[in-house]
Amino acid sequence: MKSLKAGVIGHPISHSKSPIIHQYWLQQHELEGSYKTIDIAPENLESGIQNLVSEGYDGFNITIPHKENILTLCDELSPAAKIIGAVNTVKIKNKKLIGHNTDYFGFIENIKMSIANYNFKDKNIFILGAGGATRAIIYGLLQEKFSKIYISNRTQGRAENLKEMAPEKIEVIEWSGKENNLSNINLLINTTSLGMVNHPELEINISNLPDNATVTDIVYTPLLTDLLKQAKINNNQIVTGIGMLLHQARPAFELWTRIMPDASPELEKLVLGEISV
Ligand SMILES: NC(=O)c1ccc[n+]([C@@H]2O[C@H](COP(=O)([O-])OP(=O)(O)OC[C@H]3O[C@@H](n4cnc5c(N)ncnc54)[C@H](OP(=O)(O)O)[C@@H]3O)[C@@H](O)[C@H]2O)c1
Question: In the structure, what pLDDT confidence band is assigned to residue 2 with cuts at 50, 70 and 90?
Answer without folding.
Answer: confident
